[in-house]
Design brief:
The chain folds into 2 domains: about 55-190, Fructose-1,6-Bisphosphatase, Chain A, domain 1; about 205-315, 3-Layer(aba) Sandwich (D-Maltodextrin-Binding Protein, domain 2). With about 325 residues, it is α+β, with helices and mostly antiparallel strands. The chain has helices at about 55-75, 95-110, 140-145, 215-225, 240-250, 260-275, 285-290, 300-310, and strands spanning about 1-5, 80-85, 90, 115, 120-125, 125-140, 150-160, 160-170, 175-180, 185, 190, 205, 230-235, 255, 275-280, 295. A hairpin with a 4-residue loop joins β8 (about 160-170) and β9. An 8-stranded mixed β-sheet has the order 5-4-6-7-8-9-10-11, sandwiched between helices. The chain has a 5-stranded mixed β-sheet with strand order 13-12-14-16-15, with helices on both faces. Pfam families: Inositol_P.
Length: about 325
Amino acid sequence: MIKIHNNCSGYKAAGPPGLHLAVQKREKPCAVPLQIFRITRSLTFSETILPMHPMLNIAVRAARKAGNVIAKHYETPDSVEASQKGSNDFVTNVDREAERQIIEVIRKSYPKHTIISEESGELQGEDQDVQWVIDPLDGTTNYIKRLPHFSVSIAVRLKGRTEVAVVYDPMRNELFSAVRGQGAQLNGYRLRGGTARDLDGTILATGFPFKVKQHATPYINIVGKLFTQCADFRRSGSAALDLAYVAAGRVDGYFEIGLKPWDFAAGELLVREAGGLVSDFTGAHGYMHSGNIVAGNPRVVKAMLANMRDELSEALKR
């Protein structure tokens, strides 16, 4: 067990930073420096807020309870204990405590549902048609290093199809949510993804395949090919937030290799409900099994796939 010691102070924010909200008499944005986050287009308040899906209500409640645990420990770094559960893979007591809070909220309302979690695996319920796919702390390494960029991710799948999604950033109090067929929102404001027509001038997010390093060579080749076409890359360390940022238009596209279902289950619905497209590296829907994912608006995804095609190994085509 590794005890984490750090005297840095915590960081908290009360609302969505850098947003230009096209409404009056709403809660003021928090005083977060705009250089930290900047949205690339205005978000317009929807007069017809998404009806609160019963399971969305529970997912939001669970995400906020987990977020409170995460934020509390972030402010008291000596309370964080980390251990290594695999190569380049860590877990903390905060992951486990946040997971317990989420499971407790879900079980109280839906005791028969199945829960799939990064830390506990599959907790089978009597009703296996409904699955809650949760990552209590996506971005654990950032958390350990006191880099304030991580999230809680919760998705609800019905017979294999994602119906509800929540990604919560407790440090900025940003709650991204979506219900299938009803759009995506950030703190009650409707989201639409970016409008880029090709890769020129785009910002692409990605993550290094540190758990599947056998794909390092084709991955580096893909990065090199895309780098010649786009403006820049971002590598933040939280797949759930990367996908949420695609939905918000903060980045134009995203690709990564070897993700697990809890990494992207919520984020992929956010992207699709914000008008985007999600596929595997061949343009198909195999990402649910392979964990190889490409996301963005349809034109950006098409351009990314075209540039990636010649660099794919046979393993990445499956």
